[in-house]
Design goal:
Length: 244
């Protein structure tokens, strides 16, 4: 969310949270999450390490931070990041200036920042087995969030693409296909999920391989009275509430 402050420390992210979110994290989320992860070791939910508050005495202001693992923890360059909410309202990539031809904004590390309405016809190429693993884990994780009445979370998908010679990638793909037959495949390739070979019919010498870094973030907003009112107002005054 644009109002949050984020500080990146390699494998970790330090983020500001609202007081209501911090209270929810301590009283409700952590106890349920601890029990949930015991039977879901490959969950895509955020891994919170700690949280703390800092008070500026002169301003009489207290800010709460949470420290969590970085979804995009890799030494490799990520080409694009998709922030997905399952909504079509206002879900286009921000651009550097007005106009459809203006360049899409990038992160400080150079990755394109894209949203739901920017999705291609197919984003992830991973085969039926890994597809089933991804969908099964997402269903389990979102059912858990639903049980806690949590809304406004996002599915983040980072894509690292590279082009290699066909012969040079065969051994790596074969080894990964044999080794990763469970949820460990979600993080086994430099912290991400290795794609199938992606062929270009016009190029017979090279093949594209993607690595996908997948995680769910912003999981501390309960569907409380203010959120219900916000959803009702948007659906009544501005948008189709089924697309929000």
């Amino acid at each position: 969310r644009s109002s949050d402050l984020l500080f990146y420390f390699g494998d970790y992210v330090l983020k500001t949270v609202k007081n209501v979110e911090a209270a929810f994290l301590k009283s409700t989320y952590v106890p349920s999450y601890t029990a949930y992860t015991a039977s879901n070791p490959h969950t895509l939910l955020p891994s919170f390490m700690t949280f703390f508050s800092v008070t500026w005495l002169l301003k009489r202001q207290t800010i709460t931070f949470v420290l969590m693992k970085n979804v995009f923890s890799t030494q490799h360059y990520i080409n694009a990041i998709y922030d997905l909410k399952g909504s079509t309202v206002g879900r286009e990539a921000a651009r550097e200036e007005d106009g459809p031809r203006a360049e899409v904004k990038r992160t400080a590390f150079g990755a394109l920042l894209l949203k739901d309405n920017d999705l291609p016809s197919q984003l992830v190429y991973c085969g039926p087995l890994r597809r089933a693993i991804i969908i099964g884990q997402l269903q389990s994780d979102t059912n858990f969030l639903q049980s806690l009445n949590i809304v406004d979370y996002s599915l983040m998908v980072g894509v690292r693409s590279r082009v290699v010679s066909k012969g040079g990638s065969e051994e790596q793909r074969a080894s990964a296909a044999i080794a990763d037959v469970d949820g460990s495949c979600l993080h086994s390739s430099n912290g991400g999920l290795l794609s199938m070979a992606i062929y270009d019919e016009h190029d017979m010498t090279t093949v594209r391989e993607d690595t996908y870094y997948i995680g769910i973030i912003d999981c501390l907003q309960p569907y409380n009275s203010s959120k219900k009112l916000e959803h009702f107002a948007k659906g009544l005054l501005m948008y189709d509430r089924h697309q929000i």
